[in-house]
Each structure stands twice: as structure tokens, then as C-alpha cells.
Specification:
The chain contains 16 helices and 14 strands. By secondary structure, it is an alpha/beta fold. Catalyzes the sequential NAD-dependent oxidations of L-histidinol to L-histidinaldehyde and then to L-histidine.
């Protein structure tokens, strides 16, 4: 991590297209195999890529029961409380159908309905991510989705992690399968003998999962193409350098391509944060990953004014933004582009990752300029409702047919004209 000039912000851009030609070719081959061979392909590919020879793709009831025994009451209670917080937050996002009428008898409205089925991809294999289960399943359930299908790569013991199974069960997921990678995305998109086809696929994954989601988009919907994690901290001289360093490293440990950025008006704070990052790195279990991320995508930007700092943040459009200033609320309204905004020194990014209730599936790679965190709307769709009265047709029909003829669509115009003729 070093000081950089604001003009170097473009260095932080990371494109999904970089070096993906080989991966895309592999993904296309995997998807074709799953589409043509179904379950047989899933068993074969799981053995090839995960080194696991599965007896069954579906998680059995006994495995869930065993997971509760393995996890223990203390962590079960934590998962339940986190789930309650997430549910409370997302309940407030739920939309409802609406209608209105005009004096001429016209009724217009919007009917809101949940998707029928959703697939949630949960990364795994060498790690457990119960938080990803809760963040995907609970908004879908709040929206009213009837069938939620979870897929996640199995460990060498042919099982999913206990924490993942408990989180899924607590979130009300009834369909859980032990398959990961691009083949899991294919199974959700096409359906197999065991895994049902879904209407939308959500959840983060590696480059193969991301590319597979891109390839099946259109056949099914997807949430987003997630890139490496990012955190930006906007701070003044009142901020705590130790807290900032810890928060920057909390994202740097994710991936060698994770970005960790400090934008500050205080050169002293910048120096202190760099020293703290070096000191805290020494004791991190994932030190090598964090070091590579900090070296490649870590930066400290010194700005002359807070307005200049805000401009830099809006250019970065970070996945996570922490504002550590004397009065963070006074700056909130000036932030136009950020996935999640954390205000004050006790609003550490992991608070949002696990427990506060907001969703941690966030736009990355600058896409916060035009997209939002995963939310209840992602699991619902809207239908326009139109009921035109005879009075409204008589008053407006000629205008409508004229508009149709303006576009050269005579059949459209005639569909209106036959109603204006008054003949049965």
C-alpha cells in the first residue's frame, strides 16, 4: 500500500474479460455437457473438479439433523439472530400491487408477483459461507418465492458444511444439492433429473461461476456478475488509523484482486494507516492473499478537501464505503455511487456482512453507478394492468390510431378503428 495521485484511480479497474478466453471455453463445454447429460454430467464433473465421488446429489434430512448437532447451540443462536435481522430489514423493502382510476372509467395499475423459483449459489469446497445462504434465501422468501433451490460444492467428506445446512434450514430452504462450479449453474438453468430448473440464479462464485451465469442469462435471470471485493474508506484527521487498517484488511483477505482504498484529507492519517496495515498483516492467517491484494490494489489518496474526496469516491463507486469523519451523516447525501455505506467508526464493514440486516451481495467493479444490492425486488416482477372504458376509447381512439399510423403500423390503427365504428 502506498500513496497515489487521484489521477491514478483508473489503475483499480478490473475487468471480468481479462484473461477469460480459456475459462469461457471450459464453461461452454461444461454447460453443454450438463444440458445434454443431466445428473450423469454432475456426478462426473464433481468427481473431476472437486475430487468427490458422490452417492447422491440431494442433501438428506439426516445430514441437516447432524449439522445442528455439529454446529452447537451458541452458533445456531447467532445464525438465528442474524436471520431475524436480515428478515426485518428486507420486509421493509417489499412492494405491493397498486391501481388507480380516472374520471373516464379507465383503470391502470401494477400487479406485483413473486418469481416461481430461484436458485442460490453458495461458494464452498474449502470454506463455509452461511452468510451467503441467508443473504440470498431470506429476501427471496420475503418476496414470496415458492421454490428456493440451493447449490454448493461438497467437501471431501461428500457433505456441505454444517453452518451452510443450518443457515439454509433456518432460512426455509427445502431443496439443497451438493454440486458447485459452472455445472451447478447449468443444472439450475436447464434442470436435470434431480435438480429443478429455476427462473433466476443468484449468489457469488469464482470466475467459472460468473462466466456460467453470464452464458445462461436470457434463459434465466441472474442477479449480477460479481467481481473481486472492494472497500473504500473516506476519512478525515479524526479517524482511527487502527480501525481503518483492520477494515481494509477485512476485504484484502478475500482475494488477491480485492481493492482496499483510503481517501483522506490527512497525510498523517495516511501514513499511520500504512504502518498499521503492515503491522496487522503479520498475524493474519490469510496473510499471503491480503499482501498480494494490498500490493496490487491497495492505495492511499491524499486530497486537499473533503469535496475532492467525495468526488473520488463517486468515481470509484465502491462495493463497500466507510465514512470515518467527524460528522459522517453530513456527507451521506453527497455520495451518489456506493453499494453499501457504513457511517462512523463502529460501523465496520463486517457488521453488514453478517449481522446488521442489510444485504452483503453488492455491486462491484464500479457497477454501483447503475445497480443496487441484492434486494426483495430482485425476486419479484411487475405486470402492467390496463382496463380502458368505452368512454375513454371514444375520447382517445382517433389519437391512438393516428399515433399507430405515424409509426407505419396499420394493423395497430385498425384494431382501434373497429372499436370506433360501433359495430358488434
Amino acid at each position: 500500500m502506498k500513496f497515489e495521485h487521484i489521477s491514478e484511480l483508473g489503475r483499480l479497474e478490473r475487468n471480468l474479460e481479462e484473461n477469460t478466453a480459456f475459462q469461457r471455453e471450459s464453461v461452454l463445454a461444461i454447460l453443454k455437457k450438463v444440458r445434454e447429460q443431466g445428473d450423469a454430467a454432475l456426478f462426473e464433473l464433481t468427481e473431476t473438479f472437486d475430487g468427490v465421488c458422490l452417492g447422491s446429489l440431494e442433501v438428506k434430512a439426516q445430514e441437516i439433523e447432524d449439522a445442528y448437532d455439529e454446529l452447537g447451540e451458541e452458533m445456531i443462536a447467532v445464525i438465528r439472530e442474524a436471520a431475524a435481522n436480515i428478515r426485518e430489514y428486507h420486509e421493509k423493502q417489499k412492494r405491493h400491487s397498486w391501481f388507480f382510476t380516472r374520471d373516464d372509467g379507465t383503470m391502470l395499475g401494477q400487479q406485483v408477483t413473486p418469481l416461481d423459483s430461484v436458485g442460490i449459489y453458495v461458494p464452498g469446497g474449502t470454506a463455509a459461507y452461511p452468510s451467503s445462504v441467508l443473504m440470498g434465501a431470506i429476501p427471496a422468501q420475503v418476496a414470496g418465492v415458492e421454490r428456493i433451490v440451493l447449490v454448493s460444492p461438497p467437501g471431501k467428506d461428500e457433505k456441505l458444511p454444517a453452518a451452510v445446512l443450518v443457515a439454509a434450514n433456518e432460512a426455509g430452504v427445502k431443496h439443497m444439492f451438493k454440486v458447485g462450479g459452472a455445472q451447478a449453474v447449468g443444472a439450475l438453468a436447464y434442470g436435470t433429473e434431480t435438480i429443478p430448473k429455476v427462473d433466476k440464479i443468484t449468489g457469488p462464485g469464482n470466475i467459472y461461476v460468473a462466466l456460467a451465469k453470464r452464458e445462461v442469462f436470457g434463459l434465466v435471470d441472474i442477479d449480477m456478475i460479481a467481481g473481486p471485493s472492494e472497500i473504500a474508506v473516506l476519512a478525515d484527521e479524526t479517524a482511527n488509523a487502527r480501525y481503518i487498517a483492520a477494515d481494509l484488511l477485512s476485504q484484502a483477505e478475500h482475494d488477491p484482486r480485492s481493492a482496499a482504498i483510503l481517501v483522506t484529507t490527512s497525510e498523517k492519517l495516511g501514513c499511520d494507516v500504512i504502518d498499521e496495515v503492515k503491522s496487522q498483516l503479520d498475524s493474519l492467517p490469510r496473510k499471503e492473499i491480503a499482501m498480494e491484494a494490498i500490493a496490487s490494489y491497495g492505495a492511499v489518496y491524499i486530497v486537499d478537501t473533503m469535496e475532492e474526496g467525495i468526488e473520488a469516491i463517486n468515481r470509484i463507486a465502491p462495493e463497500h464505503l466507510e465514512i470515518m469523519t467527524e460528522d459522517p451523516m453530513s456527507l451521506l447525501g453527497k455520495i451518489r455511487h456506493a453499494g453499501a455505506i457504513f457511517l462512523g467508526e463502529y460501523s465496520s464493514e463486517p457488521v453488514g456482512d453478517y449481522f446488521a440486516g442489510s444485504n452483503h451481495v453488492l455491486p462491484t467493479s464500479g457497477t454501483a453507478r447503475f445497480s443496487s444490492p441484492l434486494n426483495v425486488d430482485d425476486f419479484m416482477k411487475k405486470s402492467s394492468v390496463i382496463r380502458y372504458s368505452k368512454q375513454a376509447m371514444l375520447e382517445n381512439g382517433r389519437k391512438i390510431s393516428a399515433f399507430a399510423r405515424l409509426e407505419g403500423l396499420e394493423a395497430h390503427a385498425r384494431a382501434i378503428d373497429v372499436r370506433l365504428e360501433g359495430k358488434p
